[in-house]
């Protein structure tokens, strides 16, 4: 086995669960900060003298910087104690929120959003490897479930809460409202996170080492089609529900809330359901979510059917991250930071790719073509994943 780039000394026999909860809150704040502009685009554009389309790029730029940071963080951070890195990233998130809240122009807004992208890419790249050090191996899936629970909560409530508060305190007030929570989270990190020293500096050559491993390379390809399928559908869910299901704004909000709430349940259950045979779980995201998308093409005209299918889809959407990160923690456990960086970069790129493919199909034909394209990508993901055995680390590497 290759030398691990950090000490694997157990923090405590029972694990440092306070630190896990602190990371879960950090995830919630990252997701809320990243996607809050979705519900505030119009007032933000008016306040900054920009077009709505330009302001929408505030979301895209954070994603682009997240991809770049996810690939560079392990090298740039070098041998810096990982507790220090997480504290710095959380402090940068706080600064980003202040910059956005005070932004006098569109250019300053974009700078603040780029800074947030650095936080997103850096945190997600290191998160799984840090959890592997905070809790016993058997509890890693449960810890991942708790962390992604923060993502599910933020995804469910950030947009509607932002829209509601925006009408009361204005869009700047919404970003100011997040700052005390992030400041509290920063203090919690300082108190709860143990020292996480790094003994070996990673380099870009480490990515080459990982990509030469057939099981990991095949896993990345499966991840590309799995996330690509999910976001080809999810990015264009609203036009589908409006055109095919025929819902108005109020019912649309209810359906999206159902999807987000189910995501919280999915993250909680998946953390407990992932057992020793992780390969059996790998096909479930593409199978279940692709199946729900296919069923929506048939029964999406019914509000009840759409709601039920979206609940199942939403639960598996968050479970998907727990399942695949658990796979990484067990099959690339000697280089988890570099593996996490590659996975985050591939996932972010797949999300962008899914949006491009879905938009092309929508403009060329219809939203049903977009959903059909999502199903096709899910089928390809299933073909690559197979039984999951070909994605397991060979025993010779153990």
From TrEMBL:
From the Swiss-Prot or TrEMBL record, state where the protein is found: Cell membrane
| SUPFAM superfamilies, per database record | MFS general substrate transporter
Q: Which residues cross the membrane?
A: 16-38, 58-78, 85-108, 114-132, 144-162, 174-198, 219-237, 249-269, 281-299, 305-327, 339-362, 368-392
The UniProt entry's GO CC annotations, sorted and at most eight, read:
plasma membrane
Topology in the lipid bilayer: Multi-pass membrane protein
Keyword terms, alphabetized: Cell membrane, Membrane, Transmembrane, Transmembrane helix
Under the heading Gene3D superfamilies, the entry gives: MFS general substrate transporter like domains
Under the GO molecular function aspect, what terms does this record hold?
Answer: transmembrane transporter activity
What domain of life is recorded for the organism?
A: Bacteria
Q: The Major facilitator superfamily (MFS) profile domain covers which part of the protein? A: 1-390
Q: Which Pfam families match?
A: MFS_1
Q: Which InterPro entries match?
A: MFS (IPR011701), MFS_dom (IPR020846), MFS_Efflux_Transporters (IPR050189), MFS_trans_sf (IPR036259)
Official protein name in the record: Transcriptional regulator
């Amino acid at each position: 086995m290759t030398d691990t780039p950090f000490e694997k000394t157990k923090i405590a026999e029972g694990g440092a669960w306070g630190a896990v909860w602190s990371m879960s809150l950090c995830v919630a704040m990252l997701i809320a900060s990243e996607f809050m502009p979705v519900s505030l685009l119009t007032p933000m554009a008016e306040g900054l003298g920009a077009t709505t389309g330009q302001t929408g790029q505030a979301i895209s730029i954070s994603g682009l910087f997240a991809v770049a940071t996810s690939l560079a963080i392990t090298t740039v951070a070098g041998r810096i104690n990982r507790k220090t890195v997480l504290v710095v990233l959380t402090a940068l998130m706080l600064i980003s929120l202040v910059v956005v809240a005070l932004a006098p122009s569109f250019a300053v807004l974009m700078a603040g959003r780029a800074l947030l992208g650095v936080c997103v890419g850096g945190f997600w790249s290191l998160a799984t490897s840090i959890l592997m050090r905070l809790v016993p191996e058997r509890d890693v899936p449960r810890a991942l479930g708790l962390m992604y629970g923060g993502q599910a909560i933020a995804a469910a409530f950030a947009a509607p809460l932002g829209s509601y508060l925006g009408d009361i305190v204005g869009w700047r007030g919404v970003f100011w409202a997040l700052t005390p929570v992030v400041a509290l989270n920063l203090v919690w990190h300082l108190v709860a996170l143990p020292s996480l020293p790094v003994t070996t500096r990673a380099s870009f050559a480490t990515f080459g080492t990982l990509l030469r491993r057939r099981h990991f390379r095949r896993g990345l390809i499966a991840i590309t089609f799995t996330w690509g399928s999910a976001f080809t559908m999810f990015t264009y869910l609203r036009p589908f529900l409006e055109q095919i299901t025929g819902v108005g704004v109020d019912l649309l909000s209810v359906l999206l809330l159902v999807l987000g709430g189910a995501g919280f349940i999915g993250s909680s259950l998946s953390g407990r359901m992932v057992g020793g045979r992780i390969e059996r779980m790998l096909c479930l995201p593409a199978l279940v979510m692709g199946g729900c998308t296919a069923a929506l093409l048939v029964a999406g005209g019914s509000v009840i059917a759409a709601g039920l299918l979206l609940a199942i889809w939403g639960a598996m959407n968050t479970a998907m991250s727990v399942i695949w990160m658990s796979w990484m923690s067990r099959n690339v456990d000697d280089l988890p930071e570099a593996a996490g960086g590659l996975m985050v970069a591939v996932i972010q790129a797949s999300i962008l790719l899914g949006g491009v493919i879905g938009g092309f199909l929508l403009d060329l034909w219809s939203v049903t073509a977009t959903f059909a394209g999502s199903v096709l990508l899910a089928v390809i993901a299933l073909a690559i994943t197979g039984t999951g055995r070909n994605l397991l680390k060979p025993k010779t590497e153990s």
